[in-house]
Design a protein that fits this description.
The protein is of the alpha/beta class. 48% of the residues lie in helices and 20% in strands. It folds into 3 domains: 248 residues, Rossmann fold; 143 residues, no CATH class; 173 residues, no CATH class. The protein has 21 helices and 20 strands. Bound molecules: adenosine-5'-diphosphate and magnesium ion. Magnesium ion (MG) binds next to helix 1.
């Protein structure tokens, strides 16, 4: 980018520079009308002229903040028209150092942080950056003002901070636009002395002023009037302070060596700055976040409900199936003795064409003994259909048959825990006799392990015997089953079957001393309410995220507007456009992930509240991450536009706060 130069090549050479401003529609004003000059390394040049003569315009061109309308600007012999935006940013960052009349410090950042701004774009480690800034500020007499904000400093102090900022990346060419313009004479004198000292150290100084006395401190005075050079006089005491090494150094630190690293080091810095801004505007930020918070919260609750519901349906469907109905005996609503479901009822129900199988059930705890060992466990009388209706296989032996039930056979099939209790050391339970209360039963099978099922008592610790055997041998007083399980021929018949069973039982009993429930129908109505709730939540989530996103965009646009000057300062001190874009994107990301985290907290909270109300809730890491992703994607989508707007600001206009 920058060629090796011959010693006689000036550092800065302007040829016939013209700059025309055209207001929309209005007449074009030519502010610079053919300016040609060259400045060599180590010179201390003052450009002097009345207000409005085009000095600042010239300065912005010299500092590559703006481009001329015509004419050429050679830097170290290289035509700056050939430089791309990043190369210009590099020169502003690593070669030039700006000092402005009104200091242009970032108001929310401390002196120390302001000085470091240009260095954050070079990719040097933050510790090195910081110690460099401290050293510079200390040298400029501000060692005890490091943490002061600009408004806590006097004008002279602020200008010294801005000089330190101009020097942090080397500042080989200091461009000072009316640096003393806002200062009292003492502070002005200090600043001038400082510039002189820098000149002696080898920095090239271009000083702009309307004050001839101040201009007289320079080694060379260029006078401009109405955009043209009137005179160009080297003071008698002038002596070139050229540093032959300068060109070499330019090459050494040039290029994109630091550019990539810069992008990463910059992210941490941008995050810190973003946090500062958010914190300063925390009320506004919080309001903006409401949308995101509600959106993410709804997403969380929605996913938790849908997962919870699915889990529950799986559990119930898994153990029962969709074709199963339960008929329980009970007390009718109008009162009276408990109802009885008789064997004749069961016969009638079995005859229904919609019904494929019927299984009666009757159960009581009993004392089970084997040798000296005994255990109280639940004994259940059923028929031969249990393994198929419950989808329950056997681990050992066999299940009892219909014939055995009809013949009141004293046989038992035991749960795996009963087997472990009575036959712990691999003893084969098959063929052993267990005594239930007083009656001996022969073990003919061991059921496979079922595991904890939906909140029921442990089904693995039960014994199953033929219901007829139980009715005669165990509980002669309990002649009727407590419930029956009816399996419909197929799931579409469930409703009709339920209706028919009700007809049969009501006509036989004359009252509703029974209840019929059906897993599928119950789940169906539950599912409907849940679906409505889910649809509402999904709508809430979508609307909230949309509103949240718009809020984020709004607050970011406001932020860009409020910080136009800051953006100008950052661009002038060497930020690439991508740095600015990232700064605002990172800020957006921080806002939206903050909102996302708060939304997650609220979502979890309301989830638990719903859980307490008996709604099935299941949180999963995946759904939480999904909700967070929703927030971040929303933020990015809506934050992109403001970030792009910020990065496209014109540096000069931005600096002047337009
Ligand atoms: P100086 O710094 O010498 O006081 P400037 O370079 O700031 O002068 O301005 C020179 C002239 O250019 C002024 O007449 C000013 O109105 C005009 N000017 C400066 N910037 C703009 C702009 N962005 N658009 C239109 N005119 C401008
Ligand atoms: Mg000016």
């Amino acid at each position: 980018m920058v060629r090796h130069e011959k010693p006689e090549v000036p550092l800065i050479e302007l040829r016939e520079i013209r700059k025309t401003y055209s207001r929309d529609g209005g007449p074009a004003t030519e502010v610079l009308r053919g300016v040609s000059m060259s400045i060599h390394q180590g010179e201390f040049v003052a450009i002097v002229g009345a207000s409005g003569s085009g000095k600042s315009t010239l300065m912005n061109l010299l500092g590559l903040l703006d481009r001329p309308t015509s004419g050429s600007f050679l830097f170290s012999g290289e035509d700056t028209r050939n430089l791309d935006a990043d190369q210009m940013a590099y020169l502003r960052r690593d070669v030039f150092g700006f000092v402005f009349q009104n200091y242009h410090l970032i108001a929310t950042e401390s002196a120390l942080e302001n000085v470091q701004v240009p260095a954050t774009y070079t990719g040097i480690p933050s510790s090195e950056r910081k110690s460099k800034a401290i050293a510079l500020l200390t040298k400029l007499g501000l060692g005890d003002r490091l943490d002061h904000l600009p408004r806590q400093l006097s004008g002279g102090q602020q200008q010294r901070v801005s000089i330190a900022r101009a020097l942090i990346n080397g500042g080989k060419v200091i461009l000072a636009d009316e640096p003393t313009g806002a200062l009292d004479s003492t502070s002005g004198e200090e600043v001038m002395a400082l510039l002189q000292e820098l000149c002696e150290l080898g920095h090239t100084i271009v000083l702009i002023t309307h004050d001839r006395e101040i201009a007289a401190r320079a080694n060379r005075i260029i006078e401009v009037k109405d955009g043209q050079i009137l005179s160009d006089v080297s003071a008698p005491h002038a002596e070139r302070k050229c540093l032959p090494r300068l060109a070499g150094e330019l090459h050494e630190s040039s290029g994109s060596r630091n550019a990539r690293r810069g992008a990463f080091a910059n992210a941490a810095e941008a995050l810190r700055a973003a946090w500062r801004v958010l914190y300063l505007n925390r009320f506004r930020t919080a309001l903006t976040l409401l949308g995101i918070i509600m959106g993410v919260g709804s997403v969380i609750v929605m996913l938790a409900i849908s997962l919870g519901a699915r889990e529950k349906i799986m559990a119930q469907m898994g153990s029962m199936g969709a074709t199963i109905m339960y008929v329980y005996h009970g007390i009718p609503p109008e009162g009276g003795p408990i109802g009885k479901i008789t064997l004749e009822d069961i016969d009638e129900i079995s005859k229904l064409p919609q019904v494929s199988r019927v299984m009666p059930g009757l159960g009581e705890p009993a004392l089970v003994r084997y040798g000296n060992n005994h255990l109280r466990s639940y004994v259940q009388g059923t028929n031969e259909l249990l393994p198929s209706i419950h989808h329950w296989s056997l681990e050992k032996g066999r299940y009892f048959t219909g014939t055995e039930n009809a013949q009141l056979a004293p046989v038992a099939v035991i749960g795996v825990k009963i087997a472990q209790h009575f036959f712990p050391e691999g003893e084969n339970p098959i063929g052993k006799i267990l005594v239930l209360d007083q009656a001996p039963f022969e073990v003919i099978g061991v059921l496979s392990e079922k595991g904890a099922s939906s909140g029921e008592s442990d089904e693995d610790a039960r014994l199953f015997v033929p219901i007829r055997s139980a009715q005669t041998r165990l509980w002669p007083l309990m002649r009727e089953p407590e419930y029956i399980i009816v399996e419909a021929a197929d799931s579409s018949q469930v409703k009709l079957a339920e209706h028919k069973i009700d007809q049969i039982l009501f006509s036989r009993h004359g009252r509703r001393d029974y209840s019929i429930s059906n897993a599928a129908a119950k789940l169906e109505t539950e599912k409907e309410t849940r679906d409505t709730m889910m649809a509402m939540l999904a709508l809430t989530a979508a609307i909230s995220l949309l509103v949240g996103g718009i809020g984020v965009m709004n607050v970011m646009l406001m932020s860009v507007n409020e910080r136009t000057r800051e953006i100008g300062i950052r661009l002038a001190t060497g930020a690439r456009r991508s740095d600015i874009r990232w700064q605002f994107l990172i800020e957006t990301l921080l806002v939206s992930s903050l909102g996302g985290c708060m939304g997650i907290a609220i979502g979890l909270g309301s989830g638990w509240a719903l859980d307490a109300y008996g709604i099935d809730i299941l949180f999963s890491i995946r759904s939480i991450l999904l909700a967070l992703a929703c927030a971040i994607v929303t933020g990015l989508m809506f934050g992109f536009m403001p970030a792009r707007k910020a990065s496209r600001l014109d540096p000069v206009a931005a600096l002047n706060g337009e």
